[in-house]
């Protein structure tokens, strides 16, 4: 799903690379936690996978696409394969729950009849059947994140990138969101989740890739948050 080969990112006017010769492979269907202190390069890595920025060196492949070399006109094709979820949900405040999910389908050029069919299915997937007509501000944080996950799941993307998806949620709500991400992963979607949430990482025992100063400090299967515990 993801191949990183010797990936380096040096931001202009910065002396130290944000990513420094990172090499890693994520197979189809894996669930991977990306951890590391603030400034270790997690967001930079996610941005490179989405082609929001280009590496200074190295090769990045996502689903067989050479991300750095991808011509601009093919970037939408890359992004259609990647669902994204963020700490701050990023819902459209002036659209209902159903409207937020519908919008993502509209952007993909789906027909109105297909959208009417798909929106309730997607809301059922995330357990929000009864909330289609609510506005985002009427929802709890956990419910808003569920809408964001429903929206990210349109098109059944092979890859889901989650950047601190539980960062604004209490532990109980976070567990529910993790169960949802696990279920999506069991459906075959590769999940890469950047997080500082040690409780969740320790409870899930999945692969952990830990960055330090832009390098891979640890890459371990069925791991916990702190090494050697
Ligand atoms: P993390 O997500 O792990 O907190 P980042 O990828 O945001 O780490 O940052 C990695 C390093 O790159 C940090 O030193 C940060 O200051 C630097 N950095 C991030 N974005 C930029 C940018 N747009 N311009 C310059 N430096 C940046
Ligand atoms: P908003 O005002 O938030 O944009 P709308 O009610 O205009 O939301 O709906 C936008 C689109 O969302 C509609 O065209 C429709 O396809 C879809 N939609 C809205 N409500 C539902 C619903 N309850 N079930 C399924 N699809 C819906």
From TrEMBL:
GO CC terms, sorted: plasma membrane
GO molecular function, a single term: transmembrane transporter activity
InterPro entries found in the cross-reference section: AAA+_ATPase, ABC_transporter-like_ATP-bd, ABC_transporter-like_CS, ABC_transpr_LolD-like, Cell_div_FtsE, P-loop_NTPase
Membrane topology value: Peripheral membrane protein
UniProt keyword list: ATP-binding, Cell cycle, Cell division, Cell membrane, Membrane, Nucleotide-binding
Pfam families: ABC_tran
Subcellular location(s) per record: Cell membrane
Domain of life: Bacteria
Entry function: Part of the ABC transporter FtsEX involved in cellular division. Has ATPase activity.
PANTHER family xref list: CELL DIVISION ATP-BINDING PROTEIN FTSE, IMPORT ATP-BINDING PROTEIN
Assembly and oligomerization: Homodimer. Forms a membrane-associated complex with FtsX.
Listed name of the protein: Cell division ATP-binding protein FtsE
């Amino acid at each position: 799903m993801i191949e990183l080969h010797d990936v380096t990112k040096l931001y202009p006017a910065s002396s130290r690379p944000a990513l420094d010769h990172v090499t890693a492979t994520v197979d189809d269907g894996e669930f991977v936690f990306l951890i590391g202190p603030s400034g270790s390069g997690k967001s930079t890595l996610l941005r490179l996978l989405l082609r929001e920025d280009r590496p200074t060196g190295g090769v990045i492949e996502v689903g067989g696409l050479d991300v750095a070399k991808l011509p601009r006109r093919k970037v939408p094709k890359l992004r259609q394969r990647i669902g994204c979820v963020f700490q701050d949900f990023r819902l459209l405040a002036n659209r209902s729950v159903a409207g937020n999910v519908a919008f993502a389908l509209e952007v993909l050029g789906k027909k109105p009849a297909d959208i009417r069919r798909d929106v309730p299915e997607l809301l059922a997937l995330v357990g929000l059947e009864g909330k289609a007509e609510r506005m985002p501000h009427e929802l709890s944080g956990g419910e808003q994140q569920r809408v964001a996950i429903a929206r990210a799941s349109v098109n059944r993307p092979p890859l889901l990138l989650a950047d601190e998806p539980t960062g604004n949620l209490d532990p109980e709500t976070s567990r529910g969101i993790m169960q949802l991400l696990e279920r999506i992963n069991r459906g075959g979607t590769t999940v890469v989740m950047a997080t500082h949430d040690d409780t969740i990482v320790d409870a899930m025992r999945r692969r952990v890739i830990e960055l330090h100063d832009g390098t891979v400090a640890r890459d371990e299967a069925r791991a916990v948050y702190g090494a050697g515990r």
